[in-house]
């Protein structure tokens, strides 16, 4: 790993100060830039170097076995929040991925969790929103939607949280929650599919919610289907399509662009890919077969889909697959790796994959992922990346080889905000660089 001081010494002083001076002139908020420049210039002389390197393949970096029943995971600033059905939420520091360490636990019944920067949204007996800026001392922001039974899944979409909840009858329903103000979430609507549902997930695209479920008909035959709700008025969702295109019970759905990725937990088809650009005409376009496998979850980020699978005997192992979906009609394997437990969910925190693996959190490092903040693609994040960004934005310098790596604040734009964010990370203990799988 390169020493930051050595990297800084290679920059001619006049060039560095010329770049920073140009940057300051062009940015309206002079006070903010003056502060960032001061820290940038002074830091190499007074602060230790902070950087992290990228591996050269899919490598198992570490595990944390403090979890009894892990089934969901999210992360913020190199801290993982793992739902533990026996204990609540296990909070694990993986800043050193080879030595992940549990720092605390949040008690409660939690089935699923998603994060939005420093806020976590966890569901169990209702929805709870927590500020985890200080993960050792979390602060509950609010709670809502205590529907009497339990919420099972949650997905965030701008100002809405879509959740599935189990009613007193034991069947699942959709609950739509307005989280525009996290301190005051509001339940807008609940709606019931037209058949009893015992396993379901839901994802939003445009003004539609795509609900996948497993139903039991009058002959007690299990079937899978996709139900589309129009939620242009989220307080009054209406069913517009019921499509029985699934051959087996679905366990999860994720939508990116015009394609839905559905994990079928039975049968031999594995991951199904559907064109949902027209919700009234859902077409199957691709498939990734997992012989003997039962996919339990799928998530998509950038051009990759991450599939968790429990393999039936005689295979007797469990596995995560990473698929290249740049062409959704022909998904191809980028990497796969067996896991010691049963993988329930993968969270991508570039360049790491965090796997909630039943009895542990498993951490992999993946070279096919861009390292957020490594703008000059030298394998580390340091002052050289700041200089390249400044040169590109204000001096006509070459663009980053990977624009995704320059989008360090995850807003899908490479601009001055990324420079300031990167300076804060390197020298003010600000949050880690990240991206949202944006396309450039």
Strand proportion, as a percent range, falls in 35-45%
Helix content: 10-25%
Quaternary organization = single chain
What is the number of E strands?
Answer: 28
Low-confidence stretches: 1-56
Number of domains: 2
Strand order of the largest sheet: 1-28-27-26
Structural class: mainly beta
Identify the CATH class of the largest domain.
Mainly Beta
List keywords for this structure.
440 residues; mainly beta; Methylamine Dehydrogenase, Chain H; 2 domains; 4-stranded antiparallel beta sheet; 6 helices; disordered N terminus
Description:
The protein is mostly beta strands. The chain folds into 2 domains: 99 residues, no CATH class; 307 residues, Methylamine Dehydrogenase, Chain H (7 Propeller). The chain contains 6 helices and 28 strands. Strands 1-28-27-26 form a 4-stranded antiparallel β-sheet, with no helix packed on it. It has a 4-stranded antiparallel β-sheet with strand order 2-3-4-5, with no helix packed on it. Strands 6-7-8-9 form a 4-stranded antiparallel β-sheet, with no helix packed on it. Helix 2 runs antiparallel to helix 3, helix 2 crosses helix 4 and helix 3 packs parallel to helix 6. The longest helix has 17 residues. The chain is globular, with a radius of gyration of 23 Å. The two termini are 29 Å apart. The N terminus is likely disordered.
């Amino acid at each position: 790993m390169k020493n930051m001081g050595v990297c800084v010494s290679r920059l001619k002083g006049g060039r560095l100060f010329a770049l920073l001076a140009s940057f300051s002139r062009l940015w309206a908020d002079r006070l903010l830039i003056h502060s960032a420049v001061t820290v940038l210039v002074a830091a190499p002389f007074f602060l230790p170097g902070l950087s992290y390197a990228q591996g050269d393949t899919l490598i198992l970096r570490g595990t944390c076995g403090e979890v009894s029943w892990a089934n969901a995971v999210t992360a913020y600033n190199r801290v993982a929040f793992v739902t533990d059905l026996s204990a609540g939420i296990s909070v694990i520091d993986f800043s050193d991925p080879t030595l992940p360490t549990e720092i605390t636990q949040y008690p409660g019944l939690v089935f699923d969790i998603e994060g939005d920067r420093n806020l976590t949204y966890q569901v169990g007996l209702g929805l709870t929103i927590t500020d985890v800026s200080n993960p050792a001392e979390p602060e509950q922001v609010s709670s809502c939607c205590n529907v009497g039974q339990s919420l099972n899944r949650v997905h965030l979409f701008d100002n809405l949280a879509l959740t599935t909840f189990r009613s007193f009858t034991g069947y699942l329903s959709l609950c739509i929650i307005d989280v525009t103000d996290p301190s005051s979430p509001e339940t807008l609507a609940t709606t019931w599919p037209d058949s009893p549902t015992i396993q379901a997930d839901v994802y939003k695209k445009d003004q539609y919610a795509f609900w996948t479920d497993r139903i039991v008909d009058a002959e007690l035959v299990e079937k899978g289907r996709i139900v589309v709700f129009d939620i242009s008025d989220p307080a009054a969702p209406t069913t517009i399509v019921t499509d029985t295109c699934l051959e087996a019970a679905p366990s999860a759905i994720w939508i990116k662009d015009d394609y839905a990725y559905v994990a079928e937990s039975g049968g031999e088809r594995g991951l199904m890919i559907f064109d949902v650009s027209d919700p009234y005409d859902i077409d199957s376009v691709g498939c990734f077969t997992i012989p003997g496998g039962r996919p339990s979850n799928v998530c998509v980020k950038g051009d990759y889909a991450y599939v968790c699978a429990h393999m039936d005997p005689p295979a007797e192992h469990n596995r995560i697959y990473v698929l290249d979906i740049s062409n959704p009609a022909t998904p191809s394997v980028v990497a796969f790796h067996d896991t010691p437990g049963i993988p329930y969910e993968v969270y991508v925190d570039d360049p790491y994959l965090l796997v909630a693996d039943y009895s542990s959190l498993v951490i992999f490092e993946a070279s096919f992922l861009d390292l957020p903040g490594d703008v000059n693609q030298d394998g580390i994040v340091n002052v050289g990346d700041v200089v390249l960004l400044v040169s590109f934005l204000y001096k006509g310098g070459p663009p980053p080889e990977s624009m995704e790596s320059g989008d360090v604040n995850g807003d899908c734009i490479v601009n001055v905000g990324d420079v300031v964010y990167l300076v804060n990370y390197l020298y003010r203990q600000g949050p880690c660089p990240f991206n949202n799988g944006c396309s450039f």
